[in-house]
Fold each of these.
Amino acid sequence: MPAHPAEPAGPAGPGDPGDPGDPGTRRPLDHIGRIQAAWARERPEIDVSPQGVIGRLHRVAGLLTEQLCVVYRRFGLSEGEFDVLAALRRAGPPYERAPGELAAHTMVTTGAMTKRIDRLERGGLVTRRRASDDGRGRVVGLTPAGRELIDQAFAEHMRNERRLLDALPPGDAAHLEALLTSWLAEIEPPRDA
């Protein structure tokens, strides 16, 4: 198998090496570019080009999460607690879901969900009650304080996401959304709500 170049080909972008033949377009390698270059040097027989996409997506996701959590913390919430309150608020009146539904809507285990609900309940943001149709089941609901908090936090969260996305030109953002939607459908096929 031929060795693959340490630097990805294509048009220069933020952190890309640019045109190797034109020293005026060279830019410093970003974190992932440095990793690719090191692997290409150490294991030249392995195609490291997938890291250019997967590694950058992973890194961008981590950095975005850090920026999103800044807003959650302003409201005294962790990322997971924000997710629980948001899932309840999206449910519509009476803003209730069973713990299993919450786990599905936030993609966490029921054990982790229990800890989140416990903390939110202690904070007066949610309540738990027996399900009326099943005495063994439980229902988690937003309190008025919980609804007020998530409404404020969600509005600020959307302003923060807009700020982060505005770093891209609008056309690029729309193109990226289309690409990610298509790719996500291949990895996680869409399902009815």
Amino acid sequence: MISWKVLTFSQLNTHQLFELMKLRVDVFVVEQTCPYPELDEKDRHSDTRHLLGFNGDMLVAYARLIPAGVSYPGVSVGRVATHADFRGHGAGKSLLAEAIKQCENLWPKDDIEIGAQEYLLAFYRKFGFVQTSQMYLEDDIPHVDMKRKAIV
């Protein structure tokens, strides 16, 4: 069972901040061997929300929820990461469902846009996302833009 917290940057305590940065670096920099500037100003944007999923005291899932106009014209979900020990057991599905729910609560009239790794297209389609771009390389990893229309 995953318990969820949605916090602004200023609401994160030092342990939560460390755990989310460690998970992101473990997944995106180490596992995907992709050196890139992991920290950016979007993390501390006043309207950004950090979605943290805990199993007990362990951070097992994370996503960054960004308001419209910062990364895309619509709201965006990024830095979607699941701890390696929890993959294949539904944690990623729970994470994305919770991210969508939180975006709809925070910004109900906005579409949700993502830059998805191409190999995850089918996964995101199951949640109502449709491809809106051709494949492009981001940090040498094939990506496509996708959008989920707001249900108003």
Amino acid sequence: MAESVVLDPVDLHLLRLLQNDARTTYRDLAAQVGVAPSTCLDRVTRLRRSGVILGHQLRLDPAKLGRGLEALLSVQVRPHRRELVGPFVERIRALPESRTVFHLTGPDDYLVHVAVADMADLQRLVLDEFTARREVARVETRLIFQQWDCGPLLPPGQVAPKPAEQA
């Protein structure tokens, strides 16, 4: 298990701001946090080097890309052995419909978030890419009606200041 990193209130504030908008300039970050831009740059660089900040992602609207139907696929693989798991995960990750793959405990081995064009596309994906595989014993499909992003990820017991609390 990776070691956690000790973060002070300035680090937490920076992380909250960057999670809300990763394109915020160092000058704007520094002004919002109340530190010099050079200090801000040093802090963010340290957070990257320590592995707290893993990268930057561009979020896209699946519906505007012709993938307006999203679903969660619960997948049971049998037998659940390493020589089958690796190739299965790599194949699923390579599918353009796959958004996220989770390896789970419990009755289901994987939870796969997919985005497809429509119900026929979802049926094709499940039948041709999942249940057609020898190692897949069962697939359950749950449609996603709506989803919401939650607050910034912070260490346990840490609370970032709310926008109204900022100076």
